[in-house]
C-alpha cells in the first residue's frame, strides 16, 4: 500500500487508543493469523459481551474466526459482504461496535445494515461501495460517507486502523445512527423499514483487511431506556449516576447510550474534546465558537440532533441577516450545546 501523505493523514480520525497495531507491510508478509498480531482489548469490557456472531459462508471471500472477519485472506478480486447470523428483533434497539484491526485502503470498506434481500455475492468480482447501492442496505464508509439507494453523503472524518465504529439501530422508530470512537455522528437515516428482516453487515474490497466485533447488545424499549437516553445528553449527570451502587446493573445494560471514552495520546495532544473530536471532519477546530443556545430559543432538540449533519444554514438573532456557514461550524455549536 502506498504511504499516506501528511495532509491526508491529518484529516483521518485518530485511533481509539494508543495500542500498537501492525503496519501494512507486516500484514501483507505475515504467515501467521492476522488477528493474533493485535493484543489490544481496549473497550471490550464496556458492555455485556456479544449477543450474536458473524455468519460464515463458503461462498464469501472472507474467513470468520469467532469475532473476527478476515476479508480476502489471499488477494482481492472484488467486494466481499458479511452479515450477522440472525436478524434484529423489531421491538428493540440494537448497538454493536467493531474495531478496525488493519489499515483500510482500496475502493471501500463499509459498516451498516441490510435486509435479507441483499445478494451477498452480487459484487464478488466487482470493486464497489456495496452497502447502500440500492434500497436494501445502508452503509457508512471509511472515507467518511454514508450511502443509501446509491446516494452518497458526507458524514464526518475518514477513519482507519485502531478506530472503533459503532452502529445504533432503533427498530421501533426506524432510526440508524453511527458512532466513531464512541462519539455519535448523529442520526444518518430515519427510514429503516420496521417489518423487514434487518441484519448487521460489513463489506470490504481490501485484501487482508480485518474487522473485529467487540460489543453487541439489544434492549427492549422501555420508559427506563427512554429516560436514560435523555440523560445521556448530559455527561456530568451520567457520571453522577455511575457513582450510585444501586444503578450499576442498569448502567451496564445501557452503557452504549453514554459509552466510556478512552482518548489516544494523539487526540489529547490536539486538545480534542467531546464536542469536536470524532463527529466533525474540520481540519482545524473552531474552539472560539462556544456559543450556547439559550432556553428562550425555540429549538426541537430531537429534530436538530437527527438532522445536524444536513444543516448548512444558520439564522442570526437579528432575524434579517442570514449567512451560510459550514456544516461543521454549525455542528460544533450544537454538540457543545448538548454538553
Automatic annotation (TrEMBL):
Q: Name one GO cellular component term.
A: SCF ubiquitin ligase complex
Q: Could you provide one GO biological process annotation from this protein's UniProt record? A: proteasome-mediated ubiquitin-dependent protein catabolic process
Per its UniProt record, what InterPro entries does this chain match?
B30.2/SPRY (IPR001870), B30.2/SPRY_sf (IPR043136), ConA-like_dom_sf (IPR013320), FBXO45-Fsn/SPSB_families (IPR050672), SPRY_dom (IPR003877), SPRY_SPSB3 (IPR035754)
The transmembrane residues are none
User: For the B30.2/SPRY domain, which residue ranges apply?
Assistant: 22-220
What are the record keywords, sorted? Answer: Ubl conjugation pathway
Please indicate which superkingdom the organism of origin belongs to: Eukaryota
Task: List, alphabetically, the PANTHER family matched.
Answer: SPRY DOMAIN CONTAINING SOCS BOX PROTEIN (PTHR12245), SPRY DOMAIN-CONTAINING SOCS BOX PROTEIN 3 (PTHR12245:SF5)
Name used for this protein in its record: CG10516
Tell me what organism the protein belongs to.
Drosophila busckii (Fruit fly)
Amino acid at each position: 500500500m502506498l504511504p499516506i501523505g501528511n495532509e491526508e493523514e491529518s484529516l483521518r480520525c485518530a485511533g481509539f487508543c494508543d495500542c500498537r497495531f501492525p503496519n501494512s507491510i507486516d500484514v501483507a508478509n505475515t504467515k501467521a493469523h492476522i488477528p493474533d498480531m493485535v493484543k489490544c482489548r481496549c473497550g471490550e469490557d464496556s458492555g455485556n459481551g456479544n449477543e450474536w456472531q458473524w455468519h460464515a459462508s463458503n461462498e464469501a471471500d472472507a474467513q470468520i474466526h469467532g469475532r473476527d472477519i478476515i476479508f480476502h485472506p489471499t488477494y482481492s478480486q472484488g467486494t466481499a459482504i458479511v452479515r450477522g447470523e440472525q436478524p434484529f428483533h423489531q421491538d428493540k434497539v440494537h448497538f454493536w461496535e467493531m474495531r478496525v484491526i488493519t489499515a483500510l485502503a482500496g475502493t471501500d470498506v463499509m459498516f451498516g445494515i441490510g435486509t435479507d434481500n441483499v445478494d451477498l455475492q452480487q459484487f464478488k468480482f466487482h470493486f464497489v461501495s456495496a452497502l447502500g447501492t440500492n434500497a436494501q442496505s445502508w452503509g457508512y464508509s471509511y472515507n467518511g460517507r454514508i450511502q443509501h439507494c446509491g446516494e452518497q453523503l458526507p458524514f464526518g472524518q475518514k477513519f482507519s486502523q485502531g478506530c472503533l465504529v459503532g452502529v445504533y439501530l432503533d427498530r421501533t422508530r426506524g432510526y440508524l445512527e453511527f458512532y466513531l470512537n464512541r462519539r455519535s455522528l448523529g442520526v444518518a437515516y430515519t427510514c429503516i423499514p420496521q417489518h423487514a428482516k434487518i441484519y448487521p453487515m460489513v463489506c470490504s474490497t481490501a485484501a487482508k483487511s480485518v474487522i473485529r466485533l467487540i460489543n453487541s447488545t439489544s434492549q427492549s424499549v422501555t420508559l427506563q431506556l427512554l429516560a436514560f437516553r435523555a440523560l445521556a445528553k448530559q455527561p456530568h449527570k451520567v457520571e453522577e449516576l455511575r457513582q450510585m451502587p444501586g444503578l450499576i446493573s442498569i448502567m451496564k445494560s445501557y452503557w452504549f447510550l453514554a459509552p466510556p471514552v478512552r482518548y489516544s495520546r494523539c487526540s489529547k495532544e490536539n486538545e480534542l474534546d467531546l464536542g469536536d473530536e470524532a463527529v466533525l471532519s474540520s481540519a482545524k477546530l473552531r474552539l472560539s465558537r462556544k456559543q450556547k443556545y439559550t432556553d428562550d430559543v425555540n429549538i426541537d432538540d430531537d429534530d436538530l440532533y437527527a438532522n445536524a449533519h444536513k444543516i448548512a444554514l444558520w439564522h442570526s438573532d437579528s432575524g434579517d441577516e442570514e449567512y451560510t456557514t459550514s456544516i461543521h461550524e454549525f455542528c460544533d455549536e450544537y454538540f457543545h450545546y448538548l454538553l
